[in-house]
Design a protein that fits this description.
Elements: E1 8-12, E2 19-23, E3 29-30, E4 64-65, H1 68-73
Antiparallel strand pairs: 1-2, 1-4, 2-3
Length: about 90
């Protein structure tokens, strides 16, 4: 874990529907936006890592930062504190 230096964003996994919270510095993830604590973190190994307990790849074709529409579709809009542009995204 990066010690809290990274920004958290909502990441769309390679299945194009599963969303997780991801740190942009260390790539740690949290599957539930209501549970963002050190005890809830999932440390992943890059690049070909699956979300534990699933067949969903976190990275690969179709993966990327979630759009506002995708965030709204899963009911996570209330967890968005501010919006930014990821490096390389515009």
């Amino acid at each position: 874990m990066c010690g809290g230096n990274g920004a958290l964003g909502i990441w769309r996994c390679a299945d194009r529907s599963t969303l997780v919270i991801q740190c942009d510095e260390c790539n740690d993830i949290w599957p539930d936006p209501a549970k963002i604590a050190a005890a809830d973190v999932i440390r992943i190994e890059l690049p070909a890592s699956k979300l534990p307990g699933t067949s969903v790849f976190i990275y690969g074709p179709g993966a990327g930062w979630a759009t506002d529409e995708e965030v709204g579709r899963v009911g996570w809009t209330k967890f968005v504190k501010s919006k930014g542009t990821a490096l390389g995204e515009g």
